[in-house]
């Protein structure tokens, strides 16, 4: 059973945790927006599709520019920061959680971001289809008691279109070993702070350690160990941004490091900054 993580007061449907925002629909009040602050650790999936014009989003501290016929997606636990400036002339923002995904007939590998790309460009024809799907969802979500199954049908079409574009436009429609790599990423996400051993992960995926190394290296460009370290540092940065008063010792223990000193050295090696320096940048 999927765990509900979507704020109940944001859902636009009585039976589903989902919300859509367009230039003229779906915006929350200034008072409600103030409750979330200028940065939010996302508890749900977030999409921004720009049909015309341009926009920008700050995800995990990185500013991403989104142009015409482009879509940005962000995953649960990433930190979304309000970007300066407004959105383009025509856009759709969509949010939903794992409860919606659990009710869809298939899985969507792009949501694990195996190619490490969160911005997708669409051909004009694909962008038109995507815009139509967003438009229908927008119409359905204007009435809170519309049939959830109808909404899910169009959400399924929308995610199918996005999944196809994610892989086809990066010329990697079905890379060899992708299923195993997705399994590796999923296992790492589910067990990140336990810092599982590479041998344990390989065994879970029915691979040799050499086989796991080859697959992870092929799809990410780094070794399994390096992948886990980079993911841990990303998680550290998210927690530091969201909880700036956490001590180095507390943060290290939360992430599964028994030695805070080693964690501090590792953080500097990966980011080029000390933890104190990173905190200082956050306060500016």
Automatic annotation (TrEMBL):
The keyword RNA-binding does not apply. PANTHER family: ARAC-FAMILY TRANSCRIPTIONAL REGULATOR (PTHR43280), TRANSCRIPTIONAL REGULATORY PROTEIN (PTHR43280:SF32). This is AraC-like DNA-binding protein. Residues 182-281 form the HTH araC/xylS-type domain. It comes from Pedobacter zeae. Keywords: DNA-binding, Transcription, Transcription regulation. The lineage of its organism: Bacteria, Pseudomonadati, Bacteroidota, Sphingobacteriia, Sphingobacteriales. GO terms for molecular function: DNA-binding transcription factor activity; sequence-specific DNA binding. It comes from the Bacteria. Transmembrane segments: none annotated.
């Amino acid at each position: 059973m999927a765990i509900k993580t979507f704020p109940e007061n944001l859902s636009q449907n009585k039976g589903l945790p989902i919300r859509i925002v367009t230039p003229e629909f779906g915006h929350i009040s200034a008072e409600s927006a103030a409750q979330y602050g200028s940065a939010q650790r996302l508890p749900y999936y977030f999409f921004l599709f720009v049909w015309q014009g341009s926009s920008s989003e700050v995800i995990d501290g990185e500013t991403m520019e989104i142009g015409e016929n482009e879509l940005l997606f962000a995953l649960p636990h990433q930190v979304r920061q309000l970007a300066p400036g407004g959105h383009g002339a025509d856009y759709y923002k969509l949010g939903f959680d794992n409860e919606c995904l659990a009710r869809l007939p298939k899985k969507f590998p792009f949501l694990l971001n195996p190619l490490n790309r969160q911005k997708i460009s669409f051909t004009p024809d694909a962008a038109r289809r995507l815009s139509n799907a967003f438009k229908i969802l927008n119409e359905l979500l204007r009435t809170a008691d519309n049939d959830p199954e109808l909404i899910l049908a169009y959400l399924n079409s929308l995610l199918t279109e996005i999944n196809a574009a994610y892989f086809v436009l990066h010329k990697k429609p079905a890379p060899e070993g992708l299923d195993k790599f997705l399994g590796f990423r999923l296992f790492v996400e589910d067990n990140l702070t336990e810092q599982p051993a590479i041998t344990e992960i390989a065994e879970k995926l029915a691979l040799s350690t050499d086989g796991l190394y080859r697959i992870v290296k092929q799809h990410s460009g780094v070794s399994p160990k390096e992948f886990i370290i980079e993911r841990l540092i990303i998680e550290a940065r998210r927690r530091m941004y969201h909880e700036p008063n956490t001590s180095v010792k507390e943060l290290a223990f939360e992430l599964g490091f028994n030695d805070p000193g080693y964690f501090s050295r590792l953080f500097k090696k990966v980011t080029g900054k000390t933890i104190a320096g990173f905190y200082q940048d956050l306060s500016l």
